[in-house]
Amino acid sequence: MDNLSVMSIRIDHRTNSVSKVQEILTKNGDMILGRFGIHDPEEVNTGLITLNLRADMKKINDMMQELDSLEGVKVNHMQV
User: Fold this and answer.
1) Per-residue model confidence as pLDDT tens digits over 41-73
2) What domain range includes position 32?
3) What region, left, alpha or beta, does residue 17 occupy, with left being phi > 0 and alpha being psi -120 to 50 degrees?
């Protein structure tokens, strides 16, 4: 069964990690319903992406593991 959920991705070193994060999100674009990204104006190299997802937990966990493996990237997930 597909789950509705929310994922937040914090990127502490945007210049180093952002292209790989974008690649992972593009690869998993079929499960992303919505995406909102901002950077912290006080911390120029920090960004936050919020995703609304619909997918089975295996696909979500696989994407989370890929993102978590990147330096400076922290991921949180919540089912709704």
Assistant:
1) 777 788 899 999 999 999 999 999 999 999 999
2) 3-79
3) alpha
DSSP per position, the chain: --EEEEEEEEES-HHHHHHHHHHHHHHTGGGEEEEEEEEETTEEEEEEEEEEEEE-HHHHHHHHHHHHTSTTEEEEEEE-
Q: Tokens representing 73?
A: 């990237």
Per the structure, the count of domains in the chain is: 1
Tokens 């959920």 belong to 5
Which domain CATH number covers 11? 3.30.70.1150
Residues 6 or more apart whose CB falls under 8 angstroms from that of 10 comprise: 46, 47, 48, 73, 74, 75
